[in-house]
């Protein structure tokens, strides 16, 4: 069983919701990323989504766009991101890492080369936002070959047929996009989210994580009623931006935010 | 191994799932699939619907002013001393370029699907103007995204769009040009997908856009094919058109694509020179990759990041190209070449002085290559060049290069 499935199964047995933070690799500079990942683990992360910077992040709102730009100012590429994961793995062999980004950097490296290198570095899953199941047979084969989980998005507009198509190739967890929009959007409708999750569960037993629009303990708690995991991205990246000159302040701030969410999730 | 391509049936593309060989496809976030499926279904229905086709045809005739003339540039041909050059005068369309052929078609689709709001991206502003125009006519809300760099370069078109009632939103991210405007339009679409129709201006983006925009633009080639047979009694030897995303080029090429004897030349922007890296010529100097919903040739670095492009013409300043062009290049049906800013400027002046036609800087790239090509041909041979747009919008750019400020 993959590291992602193991973690989610353990939490499920304890009746707990997983907390999945997202940060962009190399933001605000490449030397701080491993330290930030460690702070996320210490403050309650069960799985970490690590953003691979891309020049044209079409599905992201301004907060994560700027994070990509800060990382790209240091020329952080996919190889550098894998090197960061490798360093993180030197003293953490339990927290799963999911790379989240866009297809083109993976295309350029080549699916096989990328998957082997990612598995070797200690990556557990890969989510490429602009790669739908229709186009991804070759990539999924390469990911499976290397023991990596292909993570897919499901959105409020995904109808039955698409949900079936997605769940037939996905593993690890499903990333349910809580609203129509880009990352960092507002106004999450808890009832609508829970209804859709119910619908998805009629197709699959793969755990469901909810992201987009979760920014604090309150929103996380609402979603945790029906989700197996909650994903927090822009709210954390905001802190990185706000304190981009001060590593200590970044870790303090993200620890505070993470701890409050962790506490809210655990006191269900 | 891919199947060998049957060169007599090149119009049977894309496949049902939007592929031109390895190119094209639908590489977008999950939220947009429902809208793409709906668009594909409605569009395919419209292609078979005589009422829709008649309305499209009537609008092109009575609103756009089609057919556009095919003009034998006799003086220019004589001075070059080679092939006879015929200009397809898309510059004479309402709004001044070929772009309106496509926006008329897509706006009719938006109406039919029942969307009340239209968004578009624009580079030179021609597509933005053409979109704002049809939105005004149909009474639809219109929002146009434009790189802030282009807003500066094309102030006249920005004002035209505002006069037409559109909201122009300058985009400050990335390189602040066309690709960033496209990113922002995609973000808007994913957020407002329920009530919004995205009118993409070129033959790129996720399926069905490349095929749909091609089909709307292919009126250019259908007319030209009839006109040249009427005027010269035969098909041309070569077609020449500029290629940014490639909509005017594919519009001219497509109806000739099974005529193997007709050579197809697409002219990209070599900017300051291909060797300098400061250009916008992905077919001549890029590699295949995935951007903006399709797999195609791109300008990218070794990490797969899209790199900044340069061209004197805002409409060609784009790091990708339509997937059908990528495919035509790979199967050897199309020849893709590039000319520099300086060559295009020279073409701009030559066309203005020799034929009394002030061309857009985009079209000036086709002019510069036609000049070279014509000289290698004989006076009994024929070139049709797509004069895709008029140059009024570029007068400021040309004047400021010559040190003149108004």
Tag the structure with descriptive keywords.
heterodimer; A: 268 residues; alpha/beta; 9-stranded parallel sheet; 12 helices; 14% strand; globular; B: 406 residues; 6-stranded mixed sheet; 4-stranded antiparallel sheet; 16 helices; 14 strands; 43% helix; 18% strand
Walk me through what this model shows.
The complex is a heterodimer of chains A (268) and B (406). Chain A has 268 residues and is of the alpha/beta class. In chain A, 49% of the residues lie in helices and 14% in strands. Chain A is built from 12 helices and 9 strands. Chain A has helices at residues 3-13, 33-42, 62-72, 78-89, 103-109, 111-121, 137-145, 160-169, 190-201, 217-224, 234-242, 247-266, and strands at residues 18-24, 48-51, 97-101, 125-128, 149-150, 152-154, 174-177, 208-211, 229-232. Chain A has a 9-stranded parallel sheet. The longest helix of chain A is centred in the C-terminal third of the chain and has 20 residues, at 247-266. The model of chain A has no long low-confidence stretch (mean pLDDT 96). Chain B is an alpha/beta fold. Chain B is 43% helix and 18% strand. Chain B is built from 16 helices and 14 strands. In chain B, the strands form 3 sheets. Chain B has a 6-stranded mixed sheet with strand order 3-4-14-9-10-13, sandwiched between helices. Chain B has a 4-stranded antiparallel sheet with strand order 1-2-12-11. In chain B, a hairpin with a 1-residue loop joins strand 11 (287-291) and strand 12. Chain A binds chain B through residues 53-62, 65, 69, 72, 75, 77-79, 102-109, 129-132, 134-135, 152-159, 162, 166, 177, 180-182, 185, and chain B through 17, 25-35, 173-174, 179-180, 183, 186-187, 190-194, 287-293, 295, 298, 300, 302-307.
